[in-house]
């Protein structure tokens, strides 16, 4: 036996080949692999083969197979895996392959791939191997023959540590959000100064999806000019003509105050212009609650939606304001279908210290929750960001709570921290963002002027759910 033969315990670390001189007719090697839906989608992404039989579950139901099936060449690629990494292994040159596809492979099927030496040609230094893939029921799904040039020299090579592949369906949670919102009656929403493509498209897309009934409040001539320039069909969308953005904010707030509309949506004006009218003591939309903003983020690497608050309204909230910020976020989480949200109160440390006001506030808010002053959620804090979203990080710190590592809501110390966190997740972690202002008499969609129509539609869905939750609360 060669001294370089790999022990079973080392197979995860090393690859060893079988040179031509070691091969014997009838010798074989096997590989077993369970194929998942993610495997199929990844193969489609890499190959570009988006045949709906492989990637479209609705279409696949209409085929003879009744469900999604794996690409035939995905199974065939497993044969190449055996030849290149197991038998004969590294140094093998693949010359040819015949394949017959005999049976469909579905997500969840376990394939046993076997290659067996059928013949050897010492003159040409060639080997022919029978290749076969069999599923968990014993059915042969693929069979054929491979023609290879086996390696001449013995090799023992450390396996390459490949990077993780993240499969993220950016539209899955978006469609789930829209489906939940469309179960509610649409609300009448004043779109304030919609004088940009994104503002108009977002409002009209949300209307077409049955989420809102928009009322465009702004200089009508300018709105029509933008629509004509961008090729946007306004149709019979109602409009209220006012001369400028400040007048649009004043009029939209008055419409909400009178009940003419049930929500507001910021268009292409500055946040300060709109919110100045919202918080006006005499004719604004204040309630007994402090007004705050909540980002609803779909972060590909996080297993569920993540709410971040407050990252847009309260610059340095005091303790009473933070209590309302928490309450508003809990109400929104309930509206999104999270029965008992896990609220993480963020600080720089997970220990309470008088040197960090955020840690003291977090501890006091948790005590309020214990005493029933904040209801409907599990609170924990102070927690550093890593301890809030990573159970591994929380475990290293010895933190044991139902919130640590599994937060639904992140309550930040101040606006700067929240704004930086939300935008980092959006621009560096590829998060999809929606946002809404709560605590006023109506929900307010407060998107950035740089937000896409897609983001504005998602925010309209969140506002619709928040409105209906407030009605039944």
Name of the CATH superfamily of the largest domain: Isopropylmalate Dehydrogenase
User: What is the CATH class name of the largest domain?
Assistant: Alpha Beta
End-to-end span in angstroms? Answer: 75 Å
* Helical/strand content category: alpha/beta
Query: Proportion of β residues?
Result: 15-25%
Identify the overall geometry: elongated
Descriptive overview:
By secondary structure, this protein is α/β, with parallel strands linked by helices. The protein has two domains: 8-158, Roll (Thiol Ester Dehydrase, Chain A), CATH 3.10.129.10; 172-472, Isopropylmalate Dehydrogenase. The protein has 15 helices and 18 strands. Strands 15-14-16-13-12-17 form a six-stranded mixed sheet, sandwiched between helices. Strands 2-4-5-6-3 form a five-stranded antiparallel sheet, covered by helices on one side. It has a five-stranded parallel sheet with strand order 10-9-8-11-18, sandwiched between helices. The radius of gyration is 30 Å and the shape is elongated. The relative contact order is 0.11.
Task: Provide a quick synopsis of the model.
With 473 residues, this protein is of the alpha/beta class. The protein has helices at 37-47, 52-55, 57-60, 72-85, 172-182, 197-208, 220-230, 245-258, 271-278, 319-335, 357-370, 385-389, 391-396, 415-427, 453-472; strands spanning 14-16, 28-34, 93-101, 110-121, 126-134, 140-149, 156-158, 187-192, 212-218, 239-241, 263-266, 292-298, 306-309, 342-346, 378-383, 409-411, 432-438, 444-445. Strands 15-14-16-13-12-17 form a 6-stranded mixed sheet, with helices on both faces. Strands 2-4-5-6-3 form a 5-stranded antiparallel sheet, covered by helices on one side. It has a 5-stranded parallel sheet with strand order 10-9-8-11-18, sandwiched between helices.
């Amino acid at each position: 036996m060669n001294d370089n033969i790999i022990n079973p315990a080392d197979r995860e670390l090393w690859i060893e080949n079988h040179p031509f001189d070691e091969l014997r007719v009838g010798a074989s090697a096997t590989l077993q692999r369970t194929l998942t839906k993610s495997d199929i989608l990844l193969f489609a992404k890499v190959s570009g083969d988006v045949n709906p039989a492989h990637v479209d579950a609705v279409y696949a139901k209409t085929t003879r197979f009744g469900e999604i099936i794996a690409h035939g060449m995905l199974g065939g690629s497993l044969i190449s895996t055996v030849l290149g990494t197991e038998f004969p292994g590294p140094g093998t040159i693949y010359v040819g392959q015949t394949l017959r596809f005999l049976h469909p492979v579905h997500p969840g099927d376990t394939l046993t791939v076997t290659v067996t030496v059928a013949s050897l040609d010492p003159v040409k230094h060639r080997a022919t191997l029978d290749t076969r893939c069999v599923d968990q029921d014993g059915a042969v799904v693929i069979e054929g023959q491979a023609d290879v040039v086996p390696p001449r020299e013995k090799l023992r090579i450390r396996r390459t540590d490949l990077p993780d592949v993240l499969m993220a369906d950016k539209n899955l949670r978006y469609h789930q959000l829209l489906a939940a919102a469309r179960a509610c009656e649409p609300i009448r929403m004043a779109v304030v100064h919609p004088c940009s493509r994104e503002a108009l498209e977002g409002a009209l897309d949300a209307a077409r999806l049955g989420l809102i009934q928009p009322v465009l409040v702004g200089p009508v001539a300018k709105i029509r000019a933008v629509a004509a320039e961008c090729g946007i069909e306004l149709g019979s969308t109602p409009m209220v003509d006012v001369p400028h953005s400040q007048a649009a904010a004043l009029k939209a707030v008055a419409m909400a105050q009178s009940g003419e509309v049930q929500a507001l949506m910021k268009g292409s004006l500055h946040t300060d212009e709109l919110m100045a009218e919202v918080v006006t003591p005499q004719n604004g939309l204040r309630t007994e609650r402090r007004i705050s903003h909540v980002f609803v983020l779909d972060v590909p690497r996080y297993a569920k939606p993540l709410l971040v608050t407050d990252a847009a309204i309260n610059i340095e909230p005091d303790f009473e304001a933070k209590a309302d910020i928490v309450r508003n976020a809990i109400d929104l989480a309930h509206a999104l279908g999270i029965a008992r949200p896990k609220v993480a109160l963020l600080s720089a440390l997970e220990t309470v210290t008088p040197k960090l006001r955020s840690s003291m506030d977090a501890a006091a808010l948790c005590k309020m929750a214990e005493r029933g002053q904040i209801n409907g959620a599990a609170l924990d804090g102070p927690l550093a960001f890593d301890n809030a979203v990573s159970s591994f990080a929380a475990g290293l710190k010895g933190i044991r709570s139902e919130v640590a590592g599994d937060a639904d809501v992140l309550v930040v110390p101040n606006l700067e921290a929240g704004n930086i966190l939300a935008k980092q997740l959006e621009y560096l972690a590829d998060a999809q963002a929606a946002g809404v202002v709560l605590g006023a008499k109506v929900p307010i969609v407060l998107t950035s002027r740089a937000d896409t129509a897609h983001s504005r539609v998602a925010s309209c869905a969140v506002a619709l759910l928040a409105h209906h939750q407030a009605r039944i609360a």
